[in-house]
Amino acid sequence: MRPIRTDRSSFIYKCPDPDIADMPGERIEPGHIRSVWTLTERERADITQGLNIELNIFVEPIPPVSLDVTYEGATLLMRRPVVVAERFIGDDGQWYLRMLSEHGATLALSKGYGKWSAWLAQRRLKKILPELEVWPRE
User: Fold this and answer.
1) Domain 82-136 has CATH 3.40.50
2) What are the residue boundaries of the structural domains of the chain, listed by start?
3) Pick from 73, 61, 77: which is nearest to 1 by CA?
4) What are 85-112's pLDDT values in tens digits?
5) Is the pTM higher than 0.90?
6) Are the C-beta atoms of residues 28 and 34 closer than 8 Å to each other?
7) What is the pLDDT of residue 24?
8) Per DSSP, which regions of the chain are E strands?
């Protein structure tokens, strides 16, 4: 594992020991420093196999510490984009296709030409982005 610089990093702690990497961090408040770390592919594989994470502290007295999982600075390996496809009849009587994020934000809206145009728009999008998951709206 190694510490990484993120958009919120405000300083770099220069370690006097050359065997320990310098650590970018964010000063939240006096006495509270936050640092984001990334794992190697091997470490990621080891964790998915059930191995644990070890925390080494190089100071006395031992300060309060915590570990957490964060999206900050992450490159998601497994996450696929999710889009909700909603076909509906507009006020003008035409069929439309509305594409929504999984959180409900409108991403795109097709022009209404008929029932099949909305269906074709959905098929075309799936061809362009085959890894895209299209969920029918319930």
Assistant:
1) no
2) 1-78, 82-136
3) 73
4) 677 777 887 777 777 766 666 766 766 5
5) no
6) yes
7) 92
8) 2-4, 11-13, 23-29, 32-34, 36-38, 82-89, 95-101, 106-109, 133-136
